[in-house]
Design a protein that fits this description.
This protein has 6 helices and 13 strands. By secondary structure, it is of the alpha/beta class. The strands form 2 sheets. Strands 1, 2, 3, 4, 11, 12 and 13 form a 7-stranded mixed β-sheet that branches. A 6-stranded mixed β-sheet has the order 5-6-7-8-10-9, with helices on one face. A hairpin with a 5-residue loop joins strand 9 (about 185-190) and strand 10 (about 195). It is globular and about 50 Å long.
């Protein structure tokens, strides 16, 4: 028997949320998706996550949300990180950080799936090495849980590819997030791990990584500070769909998913709480 797991890239603000609500329920039904993992660290106004948005993502069909370097942008998320089994943050944050680096989810058919997250260090904020941390977390997972999914939130493609090879044969899926740009290297590695360097973003592609093009270009050309507001054009749901042998935990196939949604007229609504965000990553 096999199960289908959908992994979605960074959900960007309201356009990303809207395309999830528009497309995900039908996609789950039409493709017999058993579990959905989505990176939600940019879902509230382009940075962070709120309880209201978290609830909407779960209602649309997301089973587990992962975070990243913007985990704590919204203080409202703290309680969720303390209490929810459907929300994780990078496990190589300091041990004192609120939240957890892995969780167990169960498909409707009763298959247990471990979902883990670590964050890279190349061109990222200083943080503990992800390698011993992912080893420790894998050891903590019950031995009978064979299906294991890792979100590696990292900047450098070399670091992401390296993590894929490091985990090959030990996890079912290793997918990259953070750079918002889908890569063309989806494959099943020799040990049976479905891998992709980056699944891309779920949000507006008529943009610079989800932000209004004119604002980012003005920053690039003048060096003057800009409010990097979330864009609205060409929203897409982007990720990968992997088929996993539930008896072995090995991947049987992996394919890119990129679906176009309906364009929105505004990038913000009441759930975002505040408009705009001065993003330092550009």
């Amino acid at each position: 028997m096999s199960i289908n797991i959908l992994c979605l890239g960074d959900i960007i603000g309201r356009p990303g949320r809207q395309v999830i609500m528009e497309l995900l329920p039908d996609f789950i039904k039409s493709r017999n998706v058993d579990l959905v993992v989505a990176n939600a660290e940019n879902s509230a106004g382009g940075s962070g996550l709120t309880p209201a948005i978290f609830d909407k993502l779960l209602a649309a069909g997301v089973n587990v949300c992962t975070m990243g370097d913007h985990t704590y942008r919204r203080r409202e998320v703290i309680k969720l990180l303390e209490t929810s089994s459907q929300l994780i943050r990078p496990g190589n944050f300091p041990r004192e950080s609120i939240g957890k680096g892995w969780t167990l989810a169960k498909t409707a058919g009763g298959v247990s799936v471990a979902v883990l997250q670590v964050m890279g260090r190349v061109y990222m904020d200083p943080i503990d090495s992800p390698y011993p941390v992912i080893d420790r977390m894998l050891e903590e997972i019950p031995r009978d849980v064979l299906v294991r999914v890792v979100d590696f939130h990292a900047e450098a493609s070399s670091e992401k590819v390296g993590m894929g090879w490091y985990l090959d044969g030990r996890v079912s899926i290793c997918f990259g997030t953070h750079t918002h740009t889908p890569t063309a290297d989806a494959r099943v590695l020799p040990g049976g791990t479905a891998f992709i360097s980056d699944v891309g973003m779920t949000g507006p592609y008529a943009s610079v990584l989800g932000r209004r093009t004119e604002r980012v270009l003005k920053f690039f050309t003048t060096g003057m500070p800009q409010m990097f507001d979330v864009a609205t054009g060409d929203p897409r749901m982007s990720g990968i769909l992997a088929t996993i042998d539930e008896k072995t935990g090995k991947a049987l196939s992996i394919q890119r998913v990129e679906l176009h949604g309906t364009e929105q007229t505004t990038a913000y609504d009441a759930d975002d709480n505040r408009p705009g965000y001065r993003k330092a990553d550009y």
